[in-house]
Amino acid sequence: MKNGPILTRASAGAVALLSVGLGAMPALAHHSFAMYDQTKIVVVTGVVYQFVAQANHAELHVYLIGPDGKLEKDKDGKPHPYGVEMAGAAAVAEQGITAETMKAGTIVSVKVNPLRDGTDFGSKAGNSAVAKCPWKTPPEPGKTCDTVAGHELLGYSKF
User: Fold this and answer.
1) Where does 42-154 sit in CATH, by number?
2) What's the whole-model pTM score?
């Protein structure tokens, strides 16, 4: 009988350790950024239609503005959507990137590492700012929001 309580304590310890380990797994379960081509940087300028504040990664969804300064259209004649993955909502909020600053209609320019498969989605590139144009003031054709008088740089001091 002396071995019974020792095994029970050891078993309880193992169960507790396993429980802690399993509880930590969702925090460790995270995707790789290998799907993004980090050797390429694409500058995306667009009109925000949605900001998604998620714990793991906030997302910014825009309709692209083409080099001619007009909204690009997809093959169906609809505005051309593009998504940008960023850090978690709390981290980007500290940088001034929130649902309030990225409300629908806001015009922004973002440097992204595009998806390797060419899909219209990317990850915000490194330590670059999100350049926000003044309300309803798009950049000149072929330019980005950081060239517009009165623009804001969110997150970093350099676009």
Assistant:
1) 2.40.50
2) 0.79
Q: Residues 88, 156, 61, CA angle at the centre, nearest 5°?
A: 50
C-alpha closest to that of 124 among 90, 152, 97, 148: 97
103 pairs with which residues across the strands?
none
Cβ within 8 Å of residue 102, ≥6 positions away: 48, 51, 60, 108
Q: How far is CA 97 from CA 17, 61, 108, 138, in A?
A: 39, 13, 11, 19
What pLDDT does residue 139 have? 97
Distance separating alpha carbons of residues 71 and 126, to the nearest angstrom = 26
Give the pLDDT confidence of 107-151 residue by residue, as tens digits: 999 999 999 999 999 999 989 999 999 999 999 999 999 999 999
Q: If 0-12 CB within 10 Å is exposed, 13-18 middle and 19+ buried, where does residue 130 land?
A: buried
Report the distance separating Cα 102 and Cα 152, nearest Å: 12
φ and ψ at 147, to 5 degrees? -95, -5
Q: Return the closest-CA partner of residue 70 out of 104, 51, 102, 45.
A: 45
CB 107 within 8 A of CB 46: yes
